[in-house]
Amino acid sequence: MRAYQDYVQLAEERGLKIGEIILAEQAEESEKPESELQERMRLNLNVMREAVESGLSGERKSHSGLIGGDAAKVQARWKNGESLTGERICGAIARALAVAEVNATMGKIVAAPTAGSCGVLPAVLLTLEEALNCPEDDLVIALFTAAGIGMVIADRANVSGAEGGCQAEIGSAAGMAAAMAVELSGGSPGQTGDAAAIALKSMLGLVCDPIAGLVEVPCVKRNATATTIALAAAEMALAGVKSKVPLDEVIDAMNEIGKQMPCSLRETAQGGLAVTPTGRRIQADFL
Amino acid sequence: MRTDDERIPQALQLAEQKGSKIRFKTGNLREVHPNTVKFRLTGRDEKVVEVVGSSIGGGRIVVSRINEFQVEVMGDYNTLIIIQQDLPGVVAQVTSLLAIAQINIAQMRVSREKKGSHALTIVEMDQAIEPEILVLMLKLPAVYQAMAVEPLE
Known about the structure:
The complex is a heterodimer. Chain A has 13 helices and no strands. Chain A is an all-alpha fold. Chain B has helices spanning 11-17, 90-100, 131-139, and strands at residues 36-42, 48-57, 60-66, 69-73, 78-85, 105-112, 118-125, 143-149. In chain B, the strands form two sheets. Chain B has a four-stranded antiparallel β-sheet, with no helix packed on it. A four-stranded antiparallel β-sheet of chain B has the order 6-7-5-8, covered by helices on one side. In chain B, strand 2 (48-57) and strand 3 (60-66) form a beta hairpin.
């Protein structure tokens, strides 16, 4: 079984970033040159950029009519300088909503790790690019760091709402994004693990209860809130705050919690928000 | 279509234009992953193949059944699918061909309908298999079908 601690140890021994270790390992396992994998990851980055742009335009509407236009509303406050939380957080929220709206409207996104949680990584990545002027090659390597965490989670637990609840989707995305943010900000490999652990701990127990079974409510907004959790976790880790429970153990705990979740709270739309009076009404209207 | 094909929202209409009839039915497949689909594919010659697969998140899938055979194929590797007679030595013949071709086996699973009947071998390999090797494999008297599937992108 993969352990994130092993990657941290390798990165520290060799003086490399986690993303570089993951890239080298993937190149070896797939018997492909690193450059080819990097180019493929760059294509993902481009899709993320296009999705942010398309979602922020505010012109998209989902079939149910529930989703569309919220990213543009938040963007308006961000661009007007009226934001309560500041330019970076507000920009990240708008971008996360944008990508999640593109997904809900059948547009093209990168599952990161899943379609339902596709907004968090692009939001954090592009917000950091703007704030820190990160070169594109660093963004690509940071995506490998995020992918490494996703790989460990998929190996030790899962990234499926139907199996482990929303914590497995949006929680995993928050953990992956937090680690990526730490790396892009110059944090150590160990700090990437702390950030991911702190973010994932904050989302443990979150159930998957989509209204009418659509990846719309509450999924789109959870992308935005998970993005702020990822940034808060990265902030703490960069300051030297440690997670008392290491990442690998947090992932194992998430797996256990997912197994204990009843089926009604794992993507079946039979519990939680899906069966509130409003949830039932929306379902009846849609079907 | 690849998973990032922008025509996916129109997939059903496109399939119809190409002459495929598609019907959806919901039902209980019992002890399976919650996101599971059973495909019942009927060819032009009325031959039927059933495939059960699950979407497990992160754009990944696992095929868990092909007809009556239990399998576990995730598309991570070059995969060889063989239908053969359940006889002693068939697996050894297949693997020795792979050894000659310097192909390393990552995972392998053999299952059968019943003793002496049809058997299914799934070999997941680190390298792609050359067509010449596949031709040799099909010459083995106990091998009925051999098919190579490329890994998913």
